[in-house]
C-alpha cells in the first residue's frame, strides 16, 4: 500500500448503503463498487475498470482498500491456515482459514489480544491491545480470500472465535456481521455465523434483541463459580446463574439453540461431578455442548484431560439427554487451534519479521 496513508479509513468500515458515490452518480455506482469489493475481491482501485477514473482516484485518496500492512500465512498439515495480520499502527491480530469438503470457514478476531484473561488461553496471556474496527474485522475475510486465491463470497461460514471478546467490541462486531449478511456485500446466511462470548449477560440480551439469527457460543468452561473464577479471572463480573438466565432470554427471543464451549482441563474441570453439574445448569435450554480438548501452548500450566475422562464426561451428559460432541481443533501445528492464537511468527516469536504487503 505504498503512498496510502495509514490513517485513512477502509471502505469495509462502511455499510454498503453508506459507500460513497461520485458527484452526479446514481446508486448503481454504489452497487458497482460493492461488486468489486465483495464479489470480485479487488485488491486495488485500479482494477475497478468500469468505474470513472476520477472517482477511482478520489476513492484511493480517501479510503485505504487493504487495512493491513503485512500478512503472514502459516499453513497447517491439516489444510487450515493461520493468518498473522499487521495493522498500520503496528498492532497485530489473527484469523484462521479452515477448509472442509463442503464449505470454507474462517475464524476471525474482534480485538488485538483479549481482556478476558482466561488462564488456559494463549490470547488471554497477551492482555488487551485494542478493539478492531468493523472494517478490520470484515477485511480478515478478504485477506483470507486473497491469500487462498478464491472469491470472497466463497466463504460461507464465519466464527467470531479468534482474538478478543466480541461483545465487548459490540458495535464493530455487530456491524461486521451486518456486512457479512448484507445481500449486496458477502451475502452470508446469519445461521452460518457463530459469535463466541465468555458470557456477558447484558450484552447477550442486547444481541438477542437485535433479531439476528446467529449461532451464539458461550465459553462456560466450568459449572461452578469457584472453578470458573480460577480459570477465567473476569468471571466474577458475571455469575453463572445470570449467564444462564440471559441464554433463556436468547432462546425466548429467537429460538436458536445455544452452543456451550467447554475446554477440558486435566484435574480442573473434568470430573464426573462437574459433568452432572453442567447437565443440571442446562435443564430447559436447547443447548449443544462442545467438549474441546485443551490445545497446549508454552508455559500454560495446564494439561489436556485424558481421552478416557473426556469420554466419561461426555457419557454423563448424554445420559442426561444433553446434546454433546467432542470437538478437536484444527491447525494445532501452526498455532492456529482454539486457545493458541498468540501472534507467533515462523520461529514462534510474538514479534515476527515480515515484509510489506505485495
Quick summary:
With 358 residues, this protein is of the alpha/beta class. It has 10 helices and 12 strands. The chain has 2 domains: 25-65, no CATH class; 70-334, Aldolase class I (TIM Barrel), CATH 3.20.20.70.
Number of structural domains: 2
Helical element count? 10
What is the CA-atom radius of gyration, in angstroms? 21 Å
CATH architectural arrangement of the largest domain: Alpha-Beta Barrel
- Can you give the helix content as a percent range? 25-40%
**Sequence of secondary-structure elements:** HHEEEEEHEHEHEHEHHEHEHE
- Cα(first) to Cα(last) distance is 8 Å
- Give the biggest sheet: 10 strands, mixed
CATH-assigned fold name of the largest domain: TIM Barrel
Strand content: 15-25%
| Unreliable parts | 331-337, 346-358
Give the integer mean of the pLDDT values.
88
Biggest β-sheet: strands ordered side by side in the sheet = 1-2-3-4-7-8-9-10-11-12
Global outline: elongated
Q: Identify the CATH homologous superfamily of the largest domain.
A: Aldolase class I
Task: Supply the helix-strand structural class.
Answer: alpha/beta
Number of strands: 12
Tell me what the structure shows.
Strands 1-2-3-4-7-8-9-10-11-12 form a 10-stranded mixed sheet. It has a two-stranded antiparallel sheet with strand order 5-6. Helix content is 31%, strand content 18%. A hairpin with a 5-residue loop joins strand 2 (81-86) and strand 3. It folds into 2 domains: 25-65, no CATH class; 70-334, TIM Barrel (Alpha-Beta Barrel), CATH 3.20.20. It has helices at residues 27-39, 53-62, 122-126, 134-148, 170-181, 201-210, 225-231, 240-254, 272-281, 307-319, and strands at residues 70-75, 81-86, 92-99, 104-107, 111-113, 128-131, 157-160, 193-197, 215-219, 258-264, 287-293, 323-326. The chain has 10 helices and 12 strands. Residues 331-337 and 346-358 have low confidence and may be disordered. The chain is α/β, with parallel strands linked by helices. The N and C termini lie close together (8 Å).
Amino acid at each position: 500500500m505504498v503512498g496510502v496513508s495509514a490513517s485513512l479509513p477502509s471502505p469495509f468500515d462502511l455499510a454498503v448503503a453508506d459507500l460513497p458515490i461520485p458527484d452526479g452518480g446514481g446508486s448503481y455506482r454504489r452497487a458497482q463498487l460493492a461488486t468489486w469489493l465483495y464479489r470480485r475481491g479487488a485488491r486495488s482501485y485500479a482494477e475497478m475498470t468500469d468505474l470513472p477514473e476520477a472517482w477511482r482516484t478520489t476513492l484511493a485518496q480517501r479510503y485505504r482498500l487493504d487495512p493491513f500492512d503485512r500478512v503472514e500465512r502459516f499453513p497447517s498439515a491439516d489444510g487450515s491456515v493461520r493468518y498473522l495480520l499487521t495493522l498500520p499502527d503496528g498492532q497485530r491480530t489473527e484469523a484462521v482459514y479452515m477448509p472442509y469438503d463442503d464449505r470454507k470457514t474462517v475464524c476471525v478476531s474482534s480485538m488485538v489480544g483479549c481482556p478476558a484473561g482466561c488462564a488456559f488461553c494463549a490470547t488471554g496471556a497477551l492482555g488487551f491491545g485494542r478493539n478492531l474496527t468493523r472494517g478490520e474485522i470484515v477485511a480478515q475475510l478478504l485477506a483470507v480470500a486473497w491469500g487462498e486465491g478464491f472469491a470472497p463470497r466463497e466463504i460461507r461460514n464465519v466464527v467470531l472465535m479468534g482474538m478478543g471478546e466480541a461483545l465487548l467490541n459490540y458495535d464493530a462486531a455487530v456491524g461486521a456481521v451486518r456486512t457479512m449478511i448484507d445481500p449486496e456485500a458477502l451475502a452470508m446466511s446469519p445461521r452460518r455465523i457463530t459469535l463466541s462470548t465468555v458470557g456477558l449477560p447484558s450484552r447477550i440480551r442486547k444481541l438477542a434483541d437485535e433479531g439476528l439469527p446467529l449461532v451464539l457460543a458461550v465459553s462456560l468452561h466450568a459449572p461452578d463459580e469457584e472453578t470458573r473464577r480460577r480459570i477465567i479471572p473476569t468471571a466474577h463480573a458475571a455469575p453463572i446463574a445470570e449467564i444462564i438466565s440471559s441464554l433463556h432470554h436468547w432462546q425466548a427471543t429467537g429460538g436458536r439453540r445455544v452452543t456451550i464451549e467447554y475446554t477440558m482441563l486435566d484435574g480442573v474441570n473434568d470430573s464426573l461431578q462437574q459433568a452432572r453439574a453442567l447437565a443440571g445448569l442446562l435443564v430447559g435450554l436447547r443447548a449443544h455442548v462442545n467438549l474441546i480438548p485443551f490445545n497446549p501452548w508454552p508455559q500454560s500450566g495446564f494439561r489436556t484431560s485424558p481421552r478416557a475422562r473426556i469420554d466419561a464426561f461426555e457419557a454423563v451428559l448424554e445420559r442426561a439427554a444433553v446434546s454433546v460432541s467432542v470437538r478437536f481443533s484444527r491447525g494445532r501445528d501452526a498455532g492456529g487451534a482454539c486457545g493458541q492464537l498468540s501472534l507467533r511468527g515462523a520461529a514462534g516469536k510474538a514479534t515476527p519479521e515480515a515484509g510489506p504487503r505485495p
